[in-house]
Design brief:
Number of strands of chain B: 7
Helix content of chain A: 55-70%
Largest sheet of chain B: 4 strands, parallel
Structural class of chain A: mainly alpha
Order of helices and strands of chain A: HHHH
Radius of gyration of chain B: 20 Å
Radius of gyration of chain A: 12 Å
Structural class of chain B: alpha/beta
Shape of chain B: globular
CATH topology of chain A: Non-ribosomal Peptide Synthetase Peptidyl Carrier Protein, Chain A
Helix content of chain B: 40-55%
Number of domains of chain A: 1
CATH architecture of the largest domain in chain B: 3-Layer(aba) Sandwich
Shape of chain A: globular
CATH architecture of chain A: Orthogonal Bundle
Mean pLDDT of chain A: 88
Number of strands of chain A: 0
Largest interface: A-B, 21 and 21 residues
Low-confidence stretches of chain A: none
Order of helices and strands of chain B: HEHEHEHHEEEHEHHHHHHHH
Distance between the termini of chain A: 15 Å
CATH superfamily of chain A: ACP-like
CATH class of the largest domain in chain B: Alpha Beta
Strand order of the largest sheet of chain B: 3-2-1-7
Strand content of chain A: under 5%
Oligomer: heterodimer
């Protein structure tokens, strides 16, 4: 499980750093990436698509809330919860 | 509040006190820039029957003279028929010569419709452009959250039955890119006539469209002068009344008139009625305290802060639209 968390976190971290409007060093795992405005609408849907394809899960509209996506840590937790339910 | 001269935030804060003086200032600006900075002898303007192009045309007519202004209606197969009717009525009222250039053929040549419909079918396979109209839009539920809104695709059959689905990135980009041929074709046609006549192209975006990035780069964002780019939509309406724009145009709901299904600018981009958007944007640009703004707008501090955060994101993420070509 711990390994899962690390792997997911690393993959999300890598994706976010590569696709953000921010300089990489400004983003930590607990940085509020949407509050800081690092992603626009296109960036958000690309992030969702990345998560769905990379982790083989489906996001429903009710999943699209700030608590699930506000930071790399939040996204990691969200993915773990979804994978546990599968 | 740091600026002691700043007026208390209120719902009438955008009212232009001396509307006549503001009109004269814009008219003088058009004249000075077109005639003396650009060294052109007149103007061409795309007229859609919407409020922004109508006000811009009326101002340009005052500035350049009706004999030195050409209004061009640029419909295509998805355009609402009201657009041409209102635009012609406007031109008649102000005595401006107006011509029609239908750009459907050019758009077909670019594959605008075919490329767009290909992407639409990937998302909703039952889509048939002969049986359905289509549009893309965003949900207003995203306004008071830090998450940016997501686009969805909607198709509507002849009975008004709708189907909607969240748009994946590839299909969203293809639909937008294909649709942007429309604004870029219009820009090309405007410049054809401008160069033929030694005129300047009068652009029609308002302050929101420019600052929030609601325009197509090298499309409707491509022009020589933009007479109302400093005005909030509320102020554009105030000018419209002053200038005598026909009531049917003033009373029309602002639409994007880009997709075959009816769609307001609010559902496509702004997420709020323009009266509210204007006040919030003004408050944001002038750094009003969210508490003061919230009490006037009947919103919580948290909601206002989230709206302001969304504005910051829009400015940041649409910056490239406003950039000139980069050289280094």
């Amino acid at each position: 499980m711990e390994q899962d968390v690390l792997t997911i976190n690393q993959k999300v971290n890598q994706y976010v750093l590569q696709h953000t409007f921010a300089e990489n060093h400004k983003i930590q795992d607990d940085t509020l990436i949407f509050k800081e405005g690092y992603f626009d609408s296109m960036g958000f849907i690309m992030l969702i698509t990345f998560i769905e394809e990379e982790f083989a899960l489906k996001t429903s509209d009710s999943d699209l809330i700030e608590e699930n996506f506000e930071s790399i840590n939040a996204i990691t937790s969200y993915i773990l919860r979804k994978k546990t339910k599968i | 509040m740091k600026n002691k001269d700043k007026r208390p935030f209120n719902k009438d804060i955008l009212v232009i006190e001396d509307i006549g003086a503001e009109c004269e200032r814009i008219v003088a600006g058009i004249r000075e820039n077109v005639l003396h900075r650009l060294h052109r002898i007149g103007g061409v303007i795309g007229i859609s029957g919407g409020i922004d192009s109508s006000v811009s045309m009326a101002l340009a007519a005052k500035a350049l003279g009706t004999e030195n202004l050409l209004g061009i209606m640029l419909p295509e197969q998805d355009s609402n028929g009201d657009s041409a009717r209102f635009a012609q009525k406007l031109a008649n009222k102000f005595g401006v010569k107006a011509i029609t250039e239908n750009i459907t053929g050019a758009l077909k040549g670019f594959g605008c419709y075919a490329r767009r419909d290909e992407a639409v079918k990937k998302v909703l396979p039952e889509y048939d452009p002969d049986r359905y109209k289509m549009k893309i839009g965003i949900s207003s539920s995203g306004l008071y959250t830090n998450l940016p809104p997501l686009f969805s695709l909607t198709i509507v059959d002849s009975k008004g039955n709708q189907q909607s689905k969240r748009l994946p990135p590839n299909e969203l980009r293809q639909i937008e890119a294909a649709s942007n041929f429309k604004q870029r074709c219009r820009m090309s046609m405007l410049y054809y006539h401008a160069e033929r006549l030694h005129y300047a192209v009068i652009g029609t975006p308002n302050k929101h469209e420019v600052e929030q990035g609601f325009f197509v780069k090298n499309g409707d964002g491509g022009s020589d002068v933009m007479p109302i780019a400093h005005l909030y939509k509320t102020q554009v309406y105030q000018l419209a009344h002053y200038l005598g724009i026909p009531n049917e145009i003033i009373d029309r709901t602002p639409t994007s008139d880009t997709y075959s299904a009816e769609q307001t600018q609010e559902e496509f981009f702004f997420q709020l009625p323009f009266q509210q958007m204007d006040l919030l944007w003004y408050a944001f640009k002038n750094k009003y305290d969210p508490q003061e703004v919230g009490s006037v707008m009947d919103r919580t501090i948290d909601e206002i802060e989230k709206v302001f955060g969304g504005f910051e994101r829009k400015i940041k993420t649409t910056e490239y639209l406003r950039m000139p070509p980069l050289s280094f």
